[in-house]
Amino acid sequence: MNIKITHNWLLDYLDTDAGPYDVQKYLSLSGPSIETVEKIDDDYVYDIEITSNRIDMASVLGIAREAQAILPQYGIKAKIKNNPLEQNGFSRIGNGLSRIENPLKLDIHLKNEGLCSRFMTIVLDNVTIDKAPEFMNRRLTLSGIKSINNVVNISNYLMMTFGQPTHVFDYDKIGAGKMIMRESKAGEKIITLDDKEVTLPGGDIVIEDGSGRLIDLCGIMGGANSAVSENTKRIVLFVQTYNKQKIRRTSMLTGQRTVAATYFEKGLDEERVEPTLACGAKLLEKYASAKIASPLYDIYPQPYRPKQIEINIGEINHKIGVEIPREKIVDILENLGFLVLVGGHHDVSLRVAVPSWRHKDISIKEDIVEEIARIYGYHNLPNILQPIAYVKESKEMEKLFTLQFKVKTFLKHLGLNEVLNYSMISKELIGNFGMETAGHLTLANAMNEELKYMRISLLPSLVKNIKDNQGRSDKLKLFELAKVYIPANSLPEELYKLAIAVDTDYFDLKGIVEALYRELNINFDKFDKSIIRLNSNTRYKLEIKKDVYMVELDFQTLIDNYKILPQYHPINPYSVIKLDLNIQKKEGTDFAKIKKIAYQTSKLLTNIEFVSVFQNKLTFRFYFNSPERNITEEEAKEELEKINSQLH
Amino acid sequence: MDNLPNLHQQAINEINNLTSLKDLEFLQIKYLGRNGIVNDLLQKIKDIPDEQKKAYGSKVNRLKSEIGKAVEDKRKTLIANADSQQKTDLTLPGKPYPKGSLHLISIAVEEISRIFEKIGFIRVSYPEVEWEFFSFDALNMPPEHPARDDFEATFIDFPKDPKYGKMVLTPHTSSGQIREMWRLKNPPIRMINIAKCYRPNWDPTHTPMFYQFEGLCVDKDINITNLKGTLDYFAKEYFGPNREIRLRPYHFQFTEPSFEVDVTCDVCGGSGWVGAKRASPVQKCKVCKSGWLELGGTGMVHPNVLKAGNIDSQEYSGWAFGFGIERVIMMKYGIDDIRYYYNGDIRFLKQF
Q: Tell me: domain A395-561, CATH 3.40.250.10, correct?
């Protein structure tokens, strides 16, 4: 997530000489990434990326804390001032609370456990709804938050200052002051502040006012029925921390991605609830003339207990790779809000207490190492390649990769174009091939129908490629080398296939496959039947103008039969006699048969070439040769005659 | 004997008229060959009266040497002409040979594999359809982690495995980390895993299928400086010798500390500004953020990940990174029309 805060706002809590561009440069290197700084009037707006583990930084105070740790590393003064965590607490106004006459009451029930880790609220009376002070409006506007009125703006101002969203109800719109926090039932409806009717998936955190009426979709947005309006006199200031998984789920399922939800779904610091509420009461008193009118309600089932981590200096330096002095380590940690308690051990060991706002993020030694290393500055670490080590590669993998590239490159040189398609296809594509979806792995949460079934063949995609590319090229010759996913009892078998599709002719494709086999020194013979022509039904259905021929080869079979070198034959020094023969085409006689008969008939025959076909005559060229002596033309002619007679 | 001068003239005429070396060869054989006209005349010396034999012989020999000389002269002329008299239009195109294409991804995969091979990293391949255990649990991503929900990961409709959980299309190559640790059993590990990954995102900068390459190094005494050294090596090898890298703090579950890596921008030379200082106004570089381009995520392997790989995290440490191949292609070659990568458009594919 990204947040926007302004430089002047930051200076409310940070005593520093740093200019806004210094803050951007140095914080980006060692802390949150400040993507832009924009000057607007007399202020500067920071646009800051907050990683999901550091929601504690998503506030003015959070950024001030980072600046306090980072800027001194670059020789720039930076110290937190007016710390709002220290200056806001109910302990101070506790006496005031007890003196309230006829206090207003809330009747709070938490029906389900585990929804809310801290629930704190208070009622304020005598509220004047008005415009908010100008400085607050401006800062919120610059932060990208719409300015509404003093009460709502204070609520948002608290969120940006503390990183803790708050909510304000109109007390008089809540039936009998009753609040029941519970899980929603599926199908329950609430109209939220933005006037949208949201149907709840069920299991969402909601508040009901006792009459079955929902008044709050907790952590996401309040209900319209209990919203503050210009006539509001009494309000409920509401500060909570919620179960983060539930907030994310509701927010994603309902599509209500509110700013509050992006905070709550990351898990907030329960210890910050109280200062936020106290500061809120103070601001409402100051800018909306509000008076506290109820007891303080605080439901906090498992109060925070500080965590300590032990780590020694040697370990820190070993993991980082340089020597960082002990004093510097301690400085860094303290500026970040950690307490460094030097344990009963020797000097080399540190015991570090984690501040509450880092409680969910810091749990092991490596987390401490990260804090030290990043503040010390990754750019201050040298670049050192680790020593070379020999690791044995599996022969299968090595062959797979070597041959993949060889085959791809070879096909490219033959003039083919490589495509890569999605591994998932649609029911329609599968159907085009006369296949059923049943034999495919199916995505449980497919994005759409186009990408729903894991391919068991590459051909449907290639045919689609041919169709899509009609008119873009006279001839299409495409190949893809990719995995198919064959369902099994456990993980599917992931098999590499090589598929080729052309819209030229059968012999073009056959020639390509023959050439590939020659390149790989594989004796080929039996793939004729695996070349298929796209059946006419599908072709016309897909409106493909030309015949499509295709083949899908099992890549592992190619790997298994591949030889780096072919069988070597010593050079035969004796003469080769070439003779042509015309053969009349006959029913039931094909080249394969002619070849078979010819080789059976003549021992001197070494090769047959197909020369041409004219009308009903096929011309072949026969090569005769002996490994032992020179043969004469007469001998060769006799051999040819023997063959010829066998063929009739 | 009287026809010898005619014969001489006849040979000279023929030589003058012929235009090719091949014809000259034939002529030479016809007159001067073993069974040629001149030899034939020499054979006939036995029919010549004795007193004329000598004169006859010398005349024939003169004829022979004159024709021989004429042939040699002609040969020289023809050879000289062969170089100067070229009548073909040489600006016509050559004979066409087919030019196919490799997919951009195949080219990048090869480049990347070679770069890491040189520093001893071996390439591996692991399942794309994986168990949750390898894609998440073993990578320190607990069941409630947002990256595991239906909005961030694609699941397969298949019964849950009691030990390894649901079947998922792996959203990153990091699932190969545990597989490689299990395969080798003990460090050292030096792995490059390149594979298809899947996430349910489809917008101008994301496709639901994409490629990542994952580096993993586990050994004794591996620290952050080694990760930096390797990334610096890669950036210089792949993008060019003048490139620099930097690490910024980031967050990933499977590394601690975690970083994002940036590489200096080629367009502005890492300054963030383009345009000559005086001639034209200096402008912010449109390609990068203040001189840096984001490469991807990296970090030191989390102890829980080593533990899941049955490696003692007290004795060994490691680093890992996972970068998008489409991303590095875009950064190196500026080809950012990602929607064409996997839609098979020949007008795009055939260019490479």
A: no
